[in-house]
Amino acid sequence: MTNRVVITGLGVISPIGNDHTTFWNNLIEGKSGIGPVTRFDASDYPAKIAAEVKDFDPLLYMDKKEARKMDRFTQFAIAASKMAMEHAGLDMEKEDPRRVGVYIGSGIGGLGTLEEQHKTLIQRGPKRVSPFFIPMMIANMASGQVSIHIGAQGPNSSAVSACATGTHSIGDAFKILQRGDADVMIAGGAEATILPMAFAGFSSMGALSTKFNYQPEKASRPFDLDRDGFVMGEGAGILVMETLDHALKRGANIIAEMVGYGMTADAYHLTSPSPDGEGAARSMLRAIEDAGLKPEDIDYINAHGTSTPLNDKFETMAIKSAFKDHAYKLAVSSNKSMIGHLLGAAGGVEAVATALTLKEQIIPPTINLETPDPECDLDYVPNEARKGRVRAALSNSLGFGGHNATIAMKVYEDA
After folding, report:
1. How does pLDDT run across 45-71, given as a tens digit for each residue?
2. Which of 212, 287, 298, 306 lies 20 to 30 Å from 410 when distance is taken between CA atoms?
3. Residues paired with 308 in a beta bridge
4. What pLDDT is recorded for position 415?
5. Domain 260-410 falls in which CATH fold?
């Protein structure tokens, strides 16, 4: 018999708020966090806009000496994890540290550190490269540093699967709890790549939106006919998940129940989804089956919804393939219309939003959906949040390399 798993804490660093309450309020109000790039001079780049985290002070969560030894993505992870633990009322003094684990991924890791230290190497020589360069850069360090900071000695790992990273990390942590290898898992994703190298790379691919450089809040428009690419974001999204027995014993406040996890591979192309969204459809169906649900039990899908021409078309086709007639009866929306694409952190932040959708029974909108694409003809909750019954929901993440990941949650009901 497998353990039931519940979500008891949420932590967010995002372009629309650096705590889960501010993030949620802005999300359901349809506020965009996208604006001109300020982290570097983007005047020579085709894309000049991003969804930056604003007013983040790492010294609220760690001392200055510690912060200097961390890349920005790790600082985000620690901040969001500490917030999630506080929200969950999780006191490590009362926990067996060997039964508390951490599973936080990053799609790219410490690219900012890599850029900075490469300049140092070229300009000042190898002896001036920081001894902390490698442990600041490597993508597993979000999990490592969080475990060190909170004293969690249980299962510790990190997924690196591009834009599916956060969802893979949460799904893998869910399975650790289900099989009884831990009582508590702190899981999600963190990313901080609004940097010259990342912008140059994504620009060379033609992946970023350029049409709306002078109307930044309009640039991310999933499922809209005029979409022309994604907008890069940054941040972290973290869940505290526990076995139900552990949560009940300590009197935790339960937000939602995690019930299913699916992951598949397209085995098709480096960056393009497989034709007709076949891989994504299988991922959703696996999550539904793992949850012991039927497709018609799902009321809402938090879509990957990147605002790129191919993703939105193929994800729509995947939903139709998986859900048949029910595809037209469920609600679909994309948080990325407001927060941009947080890459490896996207699945973590969107999992927070999905849990709150179930808790609050409010579906966040897809903003900027002004000109419907005939090939994207589902109910995308356009432009305004919607109150409605949401019994069970999916959250999709689809990554370069053909990685597909889906988690399933439902409203918690007493055992």
Report:
1. 999 999 999 999 999 999 999 999 999
2. 306
3. none
4. 62
5. Peroxisomal Thiolase; Chain A, domain 1 (3.40.47)
Give catalytic status of residue 376 as yes or no.
no
Residue 106 phi, psi (nearest 5): -145, 135
Average pLDDT in the 303-331 region?
97
Is residue 305 within 8 Å of residue 223, measured between CB atoms? yes
Per DSSP, the residues of 19-78 read SHHHHHHHHHTT----EE--SS--TTSS--EEB---S--GGGTS-HHHHTTS-HHHHHHH
- For residue 302, the cross-strand partners are 333, 395
Contact at 8 Å (CB) between 47 and 55?
no
% of residues, the chain, pLDDT over 70: 100
Q: Which residues are CB-neighbours of 324 under 8 A, at least 6 positions away?
A: 295
> Is 220 in a helix, a strand, or coil?
coil
For domain 5-249, the question of CATH label 2.60.40.3410 is answered with no
Same fold, 5-249 and 260-410: yes
| Residue tagged active-site, from 37, 163, 376, 398 | 163
Percent of the chain with pLDDT over 90: 95
Q: Give 271 or 336, the one with higher predicted confidence.
A: 336
**CA distances in angstroms from 381 to 26, 50, 386, listed in the order given:** 16, 24, 7
